[in-house]
Structure formats: C-alpha cells, structure tokens
Amino acid sequence: MSSSDMKIITVIGSGLIGRSWAMVFASGGYSVKIYDNQPGQAAKAMAEIRKQLEELEEARMLRGELTATQQLALLSSYDDLAQALEGAFFVQECVFEQLEVKQSVFQDIECVVGKDVILSSSTSCLVPSNVFSKVQNRSRCLVSHPVNPPYYVKLVELVPHPETAAHVMDATHTVMTKVGQAPVRLKREIDGFALNRVQAAIIAESWRLVQDGVISVKDIDLVMSEGLGMRYAFIGPMETMHLNAPEGLEDYMKRYGVGITRVLTSFGPVPDFFGEGAKSIVNEMDELIPSEQQHLSARRERRDQLLMGLAKLKKDH
C-alpha cells in the first residue's frame, strides 16, 4: 500500500460516537468519509461537526495542527456505502449497539472493500468473535472501543478477534496514536474488555456501600472525585501502589496485601440494580440532580467543560 492509500478513513454511522471519531481522525490529518444509511443523516452530522469544530477553535481546544476550516475540508458525507468506502484503508463502525445490526453491516462492508482494509468496531459490550462472526477474512478485524466523549477522553481499547493479525493491531495502534488518542492493547477478548470491567467493580462496591447504609450517594462520588480520581487522572492503580511503599510494588503487597485480601473477602454479592433497594438510591441521586433533561444537559455540559480543562492540563504536562 502506498502512502497515498493510507489517508482515507471511513466512519460508518453518524451518531454521537461516529461524529466524535470523524473529528478525532480529521484532527490527525486524515480524510474522513462519513456514511449513514438514513438519507441526509451524514450531511446533518457534518453541519453538527462544523458547529462543534468552530466552538472548539474559539475555546482554543481544537485538537491537531490544522485549523477548523482545514479539518472540515477533510470531511465528506455519503448515503451510498460503496462510495463511502472507496479508497479507505481503515473503517470505523459506529452503528447501533445490537449484534445482528453490526454483523450485517460488516458483511455489507466486506463485499465492497479489498482484503487489506482494516475493519474496526466501536462496540462497548460485544466481543469481537461475535461482532465479526459473519466476516470471511477475520484477520483484519478488531474492536477499537472509545470512551465517551472520545474528543476529551483519549483512551481507546484495542481488542483482537482470536484471528486478528499482529500487524493489524500494530497499524491500528499507530493510527490511534497519530490522531492523539491513547490506545491500549488487550491480549485477548474478554467480556467487558478492561475499562468496563474495572468500572463495574467500582460501580458494584459503590452501590453496595450506599445500599448497606454505609455512605450517601453524594459522598461516595466525592470519594472518587476528591480522592481516588485525583491520582487516577494521571497515574493508574498499579503505579499508585508502586509509589505508595518505600520500595515499590512488592514492598506494598508485603505491607498491605493481607489487609486488601481481608477487605476483598468481605465484599457482598453482585448488587440488585433493579429491585426495591435500588429505588432509594435512584431517588437520592434524583434529589441531587433531577432526571429532567434540562438538569442532565447542564451537568453533561459541565462534565465536558471539566474534561476539556483536564485534557488541556494533561497535554501541558
């Protein structure tokens, strides 16, 4: 493949994640073709992206070396799948999170593209062996799972199908790094990948502590935002332990391993997220932030502003 063939990425699906991927890829200088099977949707997405890029430029938070106008010039929209895939070396799928939908999309894509084109899915909860089960050549398939919102939270989990070729993982890692994301490689597929498994552990214990009357919803969130989260924004749990004992990780476990094991064995069963007990937790959350759209929208906007500031801080250090 010549370098001129390595410039076009096709994004399939123009919802929130599709638009975010398109912005990320364009920020890295790739030409991006956006496809949506709903006529006119991809064009609508372009208008939404234009507005976002202009706002980001004004806030001096635009990613990449190019101006908003230059990035917009790299984007194009399509209602025709074959036209959208023409010339692409990499395809990022962002359609509805339903197995049959994704399987049929990849079948359609495979009929159109050459054998070396990388097929990547944004799925957050479906494993590659299921997503790509109807694809003939599975060695070029993988999951590239972003974190919402991908423009500010840069992690991407690269999850291989059992048949994924090593050079496909490498090439995807290179693309993600080039566009400024932070890719991590899973060595094999597992339900929930890494991020959602760690997140599920945090959700479960937080839920149990509130349900058992140990702490309030407001305060368990502070445990993370003003405690663990302060460190975890820059260093992970492994390095945290390594730095928290005079002689590193092994020393940490000598000192605290028995205590950690004792606490872990005291953990309750998987909580009931749906029964009567759950209602009081939901009500407590609603009292803090009501579930009406105007309240949630305002908090989401605040979240994105804070993430933008944190992303800037991390970039400058």
Automatic annotation (TrEMBL):
Keyword Transmembrane helix: no
Limits of the 3-hydroxyacyl-CoA dehydrogenase NAD binding domain: 9-187
GO BP: any one term: fatty acid metabolic process
Pfam families in the cross-refs: 3HCDH (PF00725), 3HCDH_N (PF02737)
One term of GO molecular function: NAD+ binding
InterPro entries in UniProt: 3-OHacyl-CoA_DH_CS, 3-OHacyl-CoA_DH_NAD-bd, 3HC_DH_C, 6-PGluconate_DH-like_C_sf, 6PGD_dom2, NAD(P)-bd_dom_sf
UniProt entry keywords in alphabetical sequence: Oxidoreductase
Protein name: Crystallin, lambda 1
